[in-house]
Write a structure and sequence with these properties.
UraD-like, homodimer, 10 helices, mainly alpha
Chain lengths: 183, 183
Amino acid sequence: MAQTTIRHAEVLNKLSFEDFVEKLGNIVEKSPMVAAAVWSKRQFYSLKGFHKAACDFIDGLPINGKEGLLRCFPDLAGTLAREGRLSADSTGEQRSAGLFDLTTEEQTNIARLNSRYKRKFGIPFVLCARLNKKDAILRGLNIRIKNSKEQEVETGIEEAKKICWLRLVDVLQGEQVNIMSKL
Amino acid sequence: MAQTTIRHAEVLNKLSFEDFVEKLGNIVEKSPMVAAAVWSKRQFYSLKGFHKAACDFIDGLPINGKEGLLRCFPDLAGTLAREGRLSADSTGEQRSAGLFDLTTEEQTNIARLNSRYKRKFGIPFVLCARLNKKDAILRGLNIRIKNSKEQEVETGIEEAKKICWLRLVDVLQGEQVNIMSKL
């Protein structure tokens, strides 16, 4: 894996900023600014190095920037999903978690919890769907909704970083790879 | 105008963050995170107040964030324009500046300057096309290419703020309004 990620880093280092942003623009949902900012930090020596630079950028955002980044994520099993308006990345992620196969009761339950969550925190519930199944997601919503706003911004950001890592690997390998253990 | 912008601010204050981001997501090109971050700063009492909050957010970005923001803008009269892949906002702006009506010589000239500019600075040449015509844009490119990187990041960001203001007014008024003098 080490050799592979070095080769992938070399691919990244050779890209113009335009190709870089086009290729990696959605590693953070609807926030190409993140990849575009990280381009300034070349050279990269591994995918982990690139991911760390993206995480450092996100960590350096002011609190409303972190909230803003989270607000660009769609609800899990929400209106955009029902209307077929999710990004390709989100569609695949939500499908893998079983969120397109909810019973009517589960759908009602998650919609109610998503609404309560958004009303309480002013951000959507962000969770790495590819690392969870629908039951775990519903449990997570029920638990996290009891947290403080500060905790939820922090937790959402950490989930966004996991999503970012998996999307990054996808872009560069062209397939889903289970390398979370390397993080 | 004051009464109108207060009414517009009231409209903004009533929007959910999802509607806010959908409506204002492109006031900074391909960077919905900006509007999404500024939602945290409600209530707004005028459009200028909202615009100031957006500018404050942009000014607070680290230098690579500002560069990243600029890298999300397309070239003026560049490949995306020729291929019909500009955002709707950018299409209207570049058309108003006459950039869809260049002679072959002008097209060659601007392409050469855009390339040199990007090679020198690692960002695209960002300029508020609606406040300029093609001759002024070519002159601007010829002049600004002699600046330092620091100057160009700063100048590009100030241009992005002007673009942001005009797009904001467009979104809320549904038409182009010449109120730059109010800035």
